[in-house]
Each structure stands twice: as structure tokens, then as C-alpha cells.
Model the fold of this input.
Amino acid sequence: MSTSKIRRIAISTGGGDAPGLNAVIRAVVMAATNRGWECVGIRDGFNGILNPERYPQGGTLPLTPDTVRGIAHLGGTIIGTTNKGNPFHYPVVQADGNVQDTDRSDELLDWFKARGIDALVSVGGDGSLTIADALHKKGLPVVGVPKTIDNDLDKTFTTFGFDTAVSFATECLDRLHSTAQSHQRVMVVEVMGRYAGWIALHAGIAGGAHGILIPEIAFDIDKVAAKVKERDAMGRQYSLIVVAEGAQPRDGERAVAAAAEIGHAERLGGIGERVAAQLAERTGKDARTVVLGHLLRGGSPTSFDRLASLRFGTAAVRALEDGMSGVMVALAFPNVNYVRLDEVAGRMKAVPMDSDTLQTGRDLGITFGD
Ligand code: F6P
Done:
């Protein structure tokens, strides 16, 4: 089938939500409608198709300029999302109660064929784009759009959602300075990011943290405690330490809140409390933890994320019009370009050790615990 003969497309948003998803949906629908195409949104990743009984209102949603009016500035996704619905590893409960890892991708492809849907715009992070690549390899025309607050996708300057998360975390740090200073405390701020330290690094530097612990640099808690004591000795009796949820202690384990299940990755969390307790013990100071968690995923996208999302969504439609498949829209600052999905899938963009942002932090006197 030639993808240039598009009549009807589907949109799916997968993985953790990120500010800007609705702007992408609006952009895809407007650009597609302007080409005379129809759009349908699949609810909750692919669950709307694979689990229709869960959706009395229907597992899909027709998307028109009316349904996407006034949504570009809203957080969340009007079609829903999930990080538990990988069609290639779907958890299917057997008669005996056991859960079986099942490949249901053929059902998905049959569904597309039966509905006359010519192509898919898959909006997601590494997990969703790996699925998108596999669907493309099975013959479905697919274009991906890079979403995640974590900014850990390769081959794109940034993902949408990251700037909003960093802006919010920075505002939180701004607010925590005064209370930490008033009480002469150590405030430990845990932020999301999975196995990458982008949110912690960028917000930590912008928000004036005194220590930043990221997964890419195994940290020694004694070095962090030394920084707190050094500040105390200089009369600056409070410290702000930003800890990425995936931060790795030099002599210990990552903090895992829940183990992986079929079709669902492990959940990180808890390192902030651990670091606060260790700092209190080593410095004799009062220490408190703030876990920003899902607050980082909410709210209105910043203008940067909103514009990136609108550009990504329309670029995805142009790609389909040009007959492309198996590609992801990317930001090659300042322009948008296309990269192969198989060059993105299964890879993670970590903070590079030669990053000038990292060096900026070091030159400002911020400790990374190394
Ligand atoms: O990938 C986005 C993200 O917010 C990560 O930073 C975090 O580890 C994960 O999703 C949490 O997912 P959830 O709580 O939705 O399972």
C-alpha cells in the first residue's frame, strides 16, 4: 500500500503522559483534516482496540477540528494513555489465573485493515516507539513523535514535555530555598527521569541547587555530606540537593518502588528519603524530602513544549503524506527532521560526561557526589 494514498489515520498516545500531548493531537488532526483525511484516536495506548469491553463508550474516538478545539494548552491527553499495554507483550489472564505474556500485534494489524486505517501516528517515549518500530516492520505505516518529560530519547535535541517538567521543578526549588534557609535545613528534592538525569541536572542548575545526584554519576554520600558541612562552615546553613529517581549510590542499589511485570517496566522511587536520612545522620542537620513525582507530568505545556508539539504533530502528517514510515519526527535544533525509528528504539540518551551543562554545574560549585 502506498502511504501517499492516505485517507484515514489513527493516533495513539502511550507511556507516561507529558505536557504537550494534546497539542500534538490537535496538530495532527488539523493538518490531516486540511488534507481531507479522517482521524481516529485510540484510547489508552492500544487498549481501546485490544480490550474493547473496558470501554462502554467505545475504544476509539473520532477526532475532528471540533473535538480538538482549545486543547493545545491543556496537560494530559484527551485519548488517554497507558504504560501497561504493549501489544507484543500483552498480559493475558489464563483460565487457571496465571498471566501469560502474549503477542497480540496481529489482532492490532487486522483491526487497522478492517477499519480502512492507512497509517498510525504513535506519540510516545522509548517503549511506545519500540512498539511503533515493530508495527512498521510488520507492514503498518507508522510515524513516531518523541514524548517524555525524561528527555531520554536519542536522535532528537529534546522531547516535548521536558521543558515543562524542568520549569516546574525549577519553580519548586526557588520556593524551597527560603524555607530551607529559614529552618537551616537540608532539603532533598527527588525528581523523575528514570535512568537519565536530565530533569535533575537542568532544574538543579537553573534552581540553584547545591548538590545534584544523577544516574550517570554514581554518588558517594560522604561527598554530598561534605558539601553540606562546607556550606555550614561558611555560614550558609542550608542546602538543597536534587536527586534523580534513578540516582545510583556508589556502594548501594537504586531505589526501586515496584518490580517489573509483564508489559510494564520497574517503577523507581524512594532515593530521596534515603539520601535525606543519610545526610541527617552524617551532618546532624534536620533534613526533609520533597518528591515532585507526577506533579512534573501535569499542568500546561510551556510555550517551548507547546510549539515543539505543534511542530512535531504537523511534521508527522507531512511525513505520512510524503510516503514515509518507520521514522520519528525529531528536533535537530532549530529545525525539525526525521530519523529512523530503529535508530531510536531501545536506546537511551543519558547525560554525556562531556556535557557543558554538567561542566557549568561543576564550575558553579555544585557537587555531583563524585
Ligand atoms: O517516563 C516518564 C515517567 O514519568 C518517569 O520519569 C517515571 O519513572 C515513570 O514515568 C513513572 O511512571 P508511572 O508512575 O506512571 O508508572
In short: Residues 16, 83, 125, 148-150, 192-194, 245, 267-268, 297 surround 6-O-phosphono-beta-D-fructofuranose (CB under 6 Å).
